[in-house]
Amino acid sequence: MSEEGRPRRPHTGRRRNDAARQAVLDVTLDLMRSGNADVTIDAIARAAGVGRQTIYRWWPSKGAVAAEALASHARATVPVSDTGSLTADLTAFLAASFVSLRDDRTRSLLRRMMAAAQADEHVAATLADFTAARRATLRELLSRGQARGELPGGADLEMLTDMAYGVLWYRVLVGHAPLDDQAAKSLATCLVAAGAAGAR
Amino acid sequence: MSEEGRPRRPHTGRRRNDAARQAVLDVTLDLMRSGNADVTIDAIARAAGVGRQTIYRWWPSKGAVAAEALASHARATVPVSDTGSLTADLTAFLAASFVSLRDDRTRSLLRRMMAAAQADEHVAATLADFTAARRATLRELLSRGQARGELPGGADLEMLTDMAYGVLWYRVLVGHAPLDDQAAKSLATCLVAAGAAGAR
Amino acid sequence: MSEEGRPRRPHTGRRRNDAARQAVLDVTLDLMRSGNADVTIDAIARAAGVGRQTIYRWWPSKGAVAAEALASHARATVPVSDTGSLTADLTAFLAASFVSLRDDRTRSLLRRMMAAAQADEHVAATLADFTAARRATLRELLSRGQARGELPGGADLEMLTDMAYGVLWYRVLVGHAPLDDQAAKSLATCLVAAGAAGAR
Amino acid sequence: MSEEGRPRRPHTGRRRNDAARQAVLDVTLDLMRSGNADVTIDAIARAAGVGRQTIYRWWPSKGAVAAEALASHARATVPVSDTGSLTADLTAFLAASFVSLRDDRTRSLLRRMMAAAQADEHVAATLADFTAARRATLRELLSRGQARGELPGGADLEMLTDMAYGVLWYRVLVGHAPLDDQAAKSLATCLVAAGAAGAR
DNA sequence: AGTTAATCGAGACGGTACGTCAGGTCTTGGC
DNA sequence: GCCAAGACCTGACGTACCGTCTCGATTAACT
After folding, report:
1. Would you call D118 and C112 a contact, using CB atoms and an 8 Å cutoff?
2. What is the pLDDT of residue D29?
3. Best interface-test mutation with A: which of B176, B190, B191, B200 has the largest number of A CBs within 10 A?
């Protein structure tokens, strides 16, 4: 029973209550991270101590909530090193990217997001931004290598980027092969060699 | 309302009615291919002219139906050419793989399947088989090139395969870049170059 | 067909919608009165323009709905005359009681209620109240006759009452004999004579 | 688990298997006597070790099964004494009739039968026969009293009979008052007095 | 003696109703 | 005007029975 007395957040009167908004986003991410049950609007509202209407007032759909939750989460980013060697930088970047995916909760979040994106345009749009930002980071890393002459001018950096994130997502979603340091190293080597061919 | 007279399939008595089973699978695929609304058990049963219980009798979940429908569909496969040139074979294989994905209905099916796999273990298992079969085909193509000496013995064929299908799925799921002949050509070139490096 | 535009009852927000409650009760009685098919929750909900959940929210079972519907209907009561003669009063009371039972719809309602009471404790409880109220009325009529000396002090009024309503229900439920004015007269005479014996 | 090996009844080839018929009727009565769950065709078939089709082959509806089961049960009848005193005979008859109703299982059976009769014409017809036979017995008892001069020639024996069984059924169905020896005695006295008035 | 025919237990089939759960809308009453 | 709360209608869920339809076996009755 635990009569908890509800310490709840303070009212903000006629202005939007940002604490409530944040609680919704936090709870949504938490629920998507937990491998467990379905993420329903009811569950979010209950866990956030929020009325269902408050969610519908500010977001057009459950997907939109998830999308904004993801967007606000996207800040956490992988540090990019600059050792002067493309292979070394790439290996480090990929290894670092893979590390966080060893956490079941992070993997659960990404898998649910990608799944949701297939049915909800809000999530799709946000996930497109999310992935675009990550691709941009990797692309810049590759660009630096290209500027240093480690990749030819004609290298198809778009394709190289998609090859890297393609492997990452493919293995996250299907789960047939691990994303360990060995994979990061092999992938980095492959990418540099592929880029050196100067296709396009 | 179009008194159609119901020509319905014949009874099979106490044995399972395979026509009903097939109707369920066909209708399920059709519904998943149609971009429209959710695929509900009710909708499948109604469209297949089947009682809901008949579905529950034979499949443990909606995902399992979708999984079997996908599996029975997986026969349609990409022809593998053998021109003597790895790059040529690879380009042809990838281009052929991409062609069917230009169809909205096929793309819709694959996206829904991958999404469903994230929440339903039956779909996940079947999709794992499905993708494994396709990887095996590509791997063999690469193996032949390796046997001909176009790839070194140490080439990480697993990684090359995942790079190819990674790009395919990533672009299908996120939709940020096309899967056209140009992409097939660039991807093939990249893969051969990557393999030539003999990583691992 | 008949695009009727749904004038439906107004929303009451977070408070219970009493119009919906009344619609459910009204429709339930109507359906039980109509000799037709089974009274299903679906049918009640549909006819009342109510969601099925709204019924389950407020009543624990179909029987409970029927019970409350009957209870709210039970107001309609038989007028008790006071002519100074027990036999005359009794004959009038019984004849009036029998009159409404000449209506197929009323008889259908009572028969369904008694049947439902055998399987549903809510209906049983309500029907017990319902019949108790009617017995009390008749008992009082007999008491007045007793006070006037038309019945001895030792008369078993309980038994007399049950004999009267026993005949009524028995004939309603089995239908082997009519409940006409002749029956009312004979029954009244029998009861007065039976009471005069002063049994117990 | 209890691998019981099913000693089941022998096949009778192309003739109707009367053992199966009897098993269905027995089981039906048993289920109706047990206060528990609903009596479904499935439950009858399962408990009788019979295929559902075997039931539908021989009876048009569940009610018809119940009806025949009741009819085959109706043999057990109340012994009629003949002491020379109408009141004594009547008291003995009613007391004996009430005794078996002290058994919950018998009461459950009668209540279910009466309830079923309200919705199923087969049960209604059989119950009408069942009750008519019992009324005839009582009527004859009253007739003997009339022949002996204990009741006037004009006594409404029909009404007296219905008053007796009316009380019995009313109390069985509503349960507001007991059917004990005291009730039998009071009822008998009332009936004799009522009959003595020579109504009609 | 071999064939035919009807019954039996079994269980899949297309349905309908059940009771529950979630979605999205609406209103109350407090701040 | 925002908020928590919660009733409302809708519609999908998975289950239980209904009444129908084979099936393969068993046996009786008719060739």
Report:
1. yes
2. 95
3. B190
For residue C1, count CB atoms less than 10 angstroms from its CB and return exposed for 0-12, middle for 13-18, buried for 19 or more.
Answer: exposed
Report the predicted TM-score, pTM, of the whole model to 2 decimal places.
0.88
Which residues of chain A fall below pLDDT 50?
1-6, 200
Distance from CA of D9 to the nearest CA of C (A): 34
pLDDT value at residue A8 = 65
- Alpha carbon distance C60, C123 (integer Å): 11
How long is the CA C50 to C1' F9 vector, in angstroms? 7
Distance in angstroms (rounded) separating the CA atoms of residues C41 and C61: 9
Q: Which of A112, A131, A158 lies nearest to residue B174, judging by beta carbons?
A: A131
D-chain residues within 8 Å CB-CB of C194? 189-191, 193-194
Distance CA D107, CA B38 (A): 52
Q: How far, in Å, is the CA of A63 from the C1' of nucleotide F11?
A: 20
Whether D176 sits inside 8 A of C119 (CB atoms) is no
H, E, C per residue of D36-60: CCCCCHHHHHHHHCCCHHHHHHHCC
What does the pLDDT look like over C190-200, one tens digit per residue?
999 999 886 44
* Protein-proximal nucleotides of chain F (any atom < 7 Å from a CB): 1-29
DSSP string covering B107-176, please? HHHHHHHHHHHTT-HHHHHHHHHHHHHHHHHHHHHHHHHHHTTSS-TT--HHHHHHHHHHHHHHHHHH-S
pLDDT at residue B200 tops 50: no
Candidates B182, D72, C102; CA nearest to A156 is B182
What's the CA gap between A76 and A130, in Å, rounded? 11
Tell me which of C71 and A79 has the higher pLDDT.
C71
Is C65's pLDDT higher than 70? Answer: yes
Q: Do chains D and B touch (3 or more CB pairs under 8 A)?
A: no
Res B4: pLDDT? 44
